[in-house]
TrEMBL record:
<protein>
    <submittedName>
        <fullName>Amidase</fullName>
    </submittedName>
</protein>
<dbReference type="InterPro" id="IPR014087">
    <property type="entry name" value="Carboxybiuret_hydro_AtzE"/>
</dbReference>
<feature type="domain" description="Amidase">
    <location>
        <begin position="21"/>
        <end position="231"/>
    </location>
</feature>
<dbReference type="Pfam" id="PF01425">
    <property type="entry name" value="Amidase"/>
</dbReference>
<feature type="domain" description="Amidase">
    <location>
        <begin position="309"/>
        <end position="429"/>
    </location>
</feature>
<dbReference type="InterPro" id="IPR036928">
    <property type="entry name" value="AS_sf"/>
</dbReference>
<dbReference type="InterPro" id="IPR000120">
    <property type="entry name" value="Amidase"/>
</dbReference>
<dbReference type="GO" id="GO:0003824">
    <property type="term" value="F:catalytic activity"/>
</dbReference>
<dbReference type="InterPro" id="IPR023631">
    <property type="entry name" value="Amidase_dom"/>
</dbReference>
Length: 455
């Protein structure tokens, strides 16, 4: 297991290692190991080494440094990075001018001492769940390179799972943090919609877009989120006092046995037998599809009129279809969204936390076109968001966490859960996640590729 972000920062802060040494090692690791995974689209070597030198000088002078001092991180390729063209996983934008400054949350992480080292692969314009990119290649799952990493933030999740980076940033519109976190066996957070600034983030569907961090453990995830949020986490709730329920109905169908067992163990540990059913989940998922398609299509329509051949054909066709949707189903989808969100608010008057699976099972093989849902073979790529898309409508914070493996972790593929709270209750998610991690119910070891040392 590679060093955590928290440990790396302490080592640098107290002089056990220099920031430059850590960054040089990280860059070498990304150059040599990423060939197997396809996470990186661009290395930020010069910038990273300059930043490391400045940090080492500050420490030598006894100046104060931030909580993530010297910690390397990567960003999904739709975050603005000063001096670089933001390509959003496409070549369509390659002639755009370079970004004049970093995205707002990147600036906050840099202020906390973290150092950006790479931009990371994604589905073109964030439209997909697989990170199969016709321009930059397919990102492979470090747990089994014949399997999908998930998407659209697949490069970000896989870089953490491979042990190449301790923290990365992604975006989540319909599950683009939660799905790859589950398939790669890492931690991810979709914060309350609107809590983190989207300044400097290339949009997909403004009604749903959020951004958040990935990490190898709950402590690092919390550190990254608090730096991105710009404020401390607040008072921690008593885990024993949290009212926890599992989502039933739609969210308990077609599950892999390991998911059923993992959620059973979590509920047993929390001494809860409560199950909550949500109404009209299939329609909620359809509404998420329609809103996403219409907003994404509308955003890209002017460019599609002139640059359609430059798009990945699969992305282009979905965007064009979305742009052609009539007004009536879009209006109905927004009405359903409002109704579904109000219903979830009602649920949280009686419950503090909901537990649900993130996907139906482990990562599909790259050459596997289908998964089984409802006894039928359906498109794997179109249905990886089966459990994430409906919950998108509410805009509530959701922690994606890997179920702890059994006695033979090498033989097992990761499985993940969603832990959902009411708006603004991220601290409850972190507190519960840490308790379940400490109890051995959540958490999956990252690989040891980064060469940053062992815990």
């Amino acid at each position: 297991m590679t060093l955590s972000a928290a440990t790396l920062a302490d080592n640098i802060r107290f002089g056990l290692r220099t920031a430059r040494e850590v960054i040089e090692t990280t860059l070498h690791t990304l150059e040599t190991h990423d060939q197997a995974y396809g996470c990186v689209t661009r290395l930020l070597a010069d910038r990273a080494l300059r930043a490391a030198g400045l940090i080492d000088a500050r420490i030598a002078n006894g100046e104060p440094v931030g909580p993530l001092v010297g910690v390397p991180f990567g960003v999904k390729d739709l975050f603005d990075m000063e001096g670089i063209v933001t390509t959003a996983g496409s070549t369509v934008l390659k002639k755009n001018p370079p970004a004049v400054r970093d995205a707002a949350v990147v600036r906050r992480l840099v202020a906390a001492g973290a150092i950006p080292v790479a931009t990371l692969n994604m589905d073109e314009f964030a439209y997909g769940f697989a990170t199969e990119n016709s321009h930059y290649g397919t990102t492979r799952n470090p747990r089994d390179t014949e399997r999908l990493a998930g998407g659209s933030s697949g490069g970000s999740a896989a870089a953490v799972a491979a042990g190449m980076l301790p923290v990365t940033l992604g975006s989540d519109t319909n599950g683009s943090i939660r799905v790859p976190a589950a398939l790669c066996g890492v931690w991810g957070l979709r914060p309350t919609q609107g809590r983190l600034p989207l300044e400097g983030i290339y949009p997909f569907a403004a009604s749903f877009d959020t951004i958040g961090p990935f990490a190898g453990n709950s402590t690092d995830l919390k550190l990254a989120f608090e730096a991105m949020d710009g404020k401390a986490g607040g008072e921690e709730p008593d885990v024993g006092a949290l009212r926890v329920a599992r989502l039933g109905g739609w969210f308990e169908r077609d599950l892999a046995p390991g998911l059923i067992d993992g959620i059973d163990r979590i509920m047993g540990f929390l001494s809860s037998t409560k199950t909550v059913g949500l109404p009209e989940v299939a329609r909620a998922r359809a509404a998420a599809f329609i809103i996403t398609a219409s907003e994404g299509g509308n955003l890209h329509l002017p460019r599609l009129r002139h640059q359609a051949p430059e798009y990945d054909p699969a992305t282009r066709d979905r965007l064009m279809a979305g742009a052609l949707l009539p007004a009536s189903p879009i209006i109905q989808a927004h009405r359903l969204r409002n109704w579904f969100r109000e219903h979830l608010h009602e649920v949280f008057r009686e419950t503090d936390i909901l537990i649900a699976p993130a996907t139906v099972g482990p990562a599909p093989r790259i050459d596997q076109p289908t998964i089984t849902v409802g006894g039928e073979a359906v498109s794997a790529r179109a249905n990886l968001g089966l459990f994430t898309q409906p919950l998108t409508l509410a805009g509530f914070p959701i922690l994606a966490a890997p179920i702890a493996p059994g006695a033979e972790p090498v033989a097992e593929l990761p499985l993940g859960v969603q832990i959902i709270a009411a708006p603004g209750q991220e601290q409850a998610l972190f507190t519960l996640g840490a308790a379940l991690e400490h109890a051995g119910l959540l958490g999956y070891p990252v690989r040891g590729a980064a060469g940053q040392g062992e815990n």
